[in-house]
Design a protein that fits this description.
By secondary structure, the protein is an all-alpha fold. About 75% of the residues lie in helices and about 0% in strands. The protein has a two-stranded antiparallel sheet. A hairpin with a 2-residue loop joins strand 1 and strand 2. Helix 3 packs antiparallel against helix 4, helix 7 packs antiparallel against helix 8 and helix 8 packs across helix 9.
Length: about 325
Amino acid sequence: MAELNQLSEDFNQYLSKKIEVKDPVNLYQPIKYILDLGGKRIRPLLVLLATDLFESDYKNAFPAALAVEVFHNFTLIHDDIMDSASLRRGKPTVHHKWNENIGILSGDAMLIQAYSFIEEYPDDIYRKIMKVFNKTAMEVCEGQQYDMDFEQLQDVSINQYLDMIKLKTSVLLASAFEIGAIIANASDNDRKNIYNFGLNLGLAFQIQDDYLDTFGDEKSFGKKIGGDIIENKKTFLYLMALQNSNSEDQLLLKALYKNDDDIAKIKNVSQFFKDKQIPDLTQKSIELYTNEAFSFVDKLSLSSEKKEILKNLGLNLMNRSV
């Protein structure tokens, strides 16, 4: 078994060799820019880890891992445009540094690049990966559309929200695990269980993301704190607050969201969440989905030591600050 730090280091070296700036510079420079912003590169790491866990050389998974990372960052470029976001990982977003047209086109090019990396695999592996990749890509688009639709709806249930984040966030984490398992020729049962592990871990991950957007540290989080509140997003915290409020307090919360003063809005909404114990309730939900994820780890045909690696990964993601 390779250490996670080793997987990350080797993958970053591979990425730096494969992603280059060429003419036209304004197409390829934004691609290199957003990938150089780094982050933890969780998704490609999951591809490599799954391949390694099922006893195949993790370096065989580099092209697929890069495809997943490039695809993920393509969605970030376009999401930032749709959200009018100014910061990504503490740096200007692509469309702020260049312009929206460049952001759209460079994002499109990244999607094409992602597919081209998968072409490096033999036909049988290629077809299996592409089936998972295409299904996931469409689900991510569906999740993004639901997210935009929710902005216009007055009432969104927590179950609707969970379905949305499953599509927008969880399926990519889940498919990263499954793609790694495919490369290692894991059994269909192991593919299914490691996918479901990733799916539930992804739900915990996104709920944690919602939590950090309001109660995280801006410097370590890499995004403006309170951005979801300013944009009136119906996050897990907001929906949980509505669910745990009487009709009078529900009206109060909705009124707080109409405040044009961003600083006061963030302060007052955050305090409302605290008064309703939403931070604690949110942490309990994160723990719930993390434990559900662990139940699928127990079903994998892996050694206890390898199962522990997956569980430790889940715990680290649950307790992250970025």
